[in-house]
């Protein structure tokens, strides 16, 4: 149940960011949900492989290259989802940074106090 709620919150963040950033476009709420699912799957499957392949440059840049890996994940989601468009890698980088920020804020609302 919590996973579905996180997907819906991610979709909400995608819609909000598409309204804020001129280089990012989402056709509608259904597309935003598909984008959230695709990003979650890409982060689960593709991101560890990319991190493994880019490990030397990630070590040399003290981990800053992981920002580019996140932008590549966003561009891959752009490729796979029809109604989602990101203008360039720079917009993807900004989108991934802001999406991570929004997700941390929204997911902190889901934390249960013990």
Describe this structure in words.
The protein has one domain. The mean pLDDT is 94. Strands 1-2 form a two-stranded antiparallel sheet. It has 114 residues and is mainly α. It has five helices and two strands. It is globular and about 40 Å long.
Q: In this structure, how is the largest beta sheet organized?
A: 2 strands, antiparallel
Mean of all residue-level pLDDT scores: 94
Instruction: Tell how many strands the DSSP assignment holds.
Output: 2
* Number of discrete helical segments: 5
Q: Structural class, from helix and strand content?
A: mainly alpha
Radius of gyration: 14 Å
Order of helices and strands: HEHHHEH
Low-confidence stretches: none
Number of domains: 1
Overall shape: it is globular
Helix content: over 70%
Bin the strand percentage.
5-15%
Biggest sheet, spatial arrangement of strands: 1-2
Ends distance: 19 Å
Descriptive tags:
membrane, two-stranded antiparallel sheet, 114 residues, 75% helix, 5 helices, mainly alpha, single chain, Phage holin family protein
Summed up:
This protein is mainly α. It is 75% helix and 5% strand. It has a two-stranded antiparallel sheet.
Give the secondary structure arrangement, pairings included.
Layout: H1 2-20, E1 24-26, H2 29-53, H3 55-60, H4 65-80, E2 84-86, H5 89-108
């Amino acid at each position: 149940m919590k996973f579905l709620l996180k997907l819906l919150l991610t979709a909400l963040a995608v819609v909000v960011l598409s309204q804020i950033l001129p280089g990012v476009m989402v056709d509608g709420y259904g597309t935003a949900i598909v984008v959230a699912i695709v990003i979650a799957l890409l982060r689960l499957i593709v991101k560890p492989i990319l991190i493994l392949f880019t490990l030397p440059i990630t070590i040399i840049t003290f981990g800053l290259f992981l920002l580019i890996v996140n932008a590549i994940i966003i561009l891959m989601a752009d490729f796979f989802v029809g109604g989602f468009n990101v203008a360039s890698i720079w917009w993807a980088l900004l989108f991934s940074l802001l999406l991570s920020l929004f997700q941390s804020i929204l997911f902190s609302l889901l934390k249960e106090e013990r």
